[in-house]
Amino acid sequence: MPRFHARVLVSLRPSVLDPAGEATRAASSRLGVEGVSRLRIGKAVELEIEAPDADTARSRVELLSDRLLANPVIENWELELSEIATTNASLPA
Amino acid sequence: MPRFHARVLVSLRPSVLDPAGEATRAASSRLGVEGVSRLRIGKAVELEIEAPDADTARSRVELLSDRLLANPVIENWELELSEIATTNASLPA
Q: Shortest CB distance from A68 goes to which of B11, B31, B68?
């Protein structure tokens, strides 16, 4: 069955405060890096999923994102999906 | 001065265990989504930075990534950088 690689980027909604991000932004000045603004820290979930086709894989990962990976009250998410190319590497020579 | 948008994806090195990712993968089965494997949870840091040019912006964000955003002992990071298009939206009509 085809395998797909999914990357789900989970970010806080713009209206939600991000104290960890603000602390990190302040620390960047102390490191000598000026001009940093709007630093926000989210999650990046990488996974592989087996599915008969890309549409099925996408709908399954969308379900996971809504129900498990993100809290839709305070977080948005976006999904990048790509098929993992099958190779002959595992076949006998 | 030009502004740039940076996205730094911080992920655990492959040799480092990810118990939270494993727990999330197990939970996906309980939600009825089968075929999920290799689920790993990392960080996605989004920020804006002012710099005279893209090379300077990149080297500054690389410094932040190495020193502040990621722990190089257990984490890898990758950087995506793009210039923010300036518009006339803030000029008086």
A: B31
Looking at chain A from residue 34 to 63, which residues have their Cβ under 8 Å from any Cβ of chain B? Answer: 34-51, 60, 63
Please tell me the predicted confidence (pLDDT) of residue B93. 47
pTM given for the model? 0.88
Tens of pLDDT, residue by residue over A62-78, are 999 999 999 999 999 99
pLDDT tens across B31-41, in order? 999 999 999 99
Q: How far is CA B56 from CA A16, A26, A42, B50, in A?
A: 31, 20, 25, 9
CA distance A15 to A17: 7
Structural domain total, chain A? 1
Q: Is B90 contained in some domain?
A: no
Q: Do B47 and A60 touch (CB under 8 A)?
A: no
CATH number, residue A45:
3.30.1280.10
Q: Which domain holds residue A62?
A: 3-15+41-83
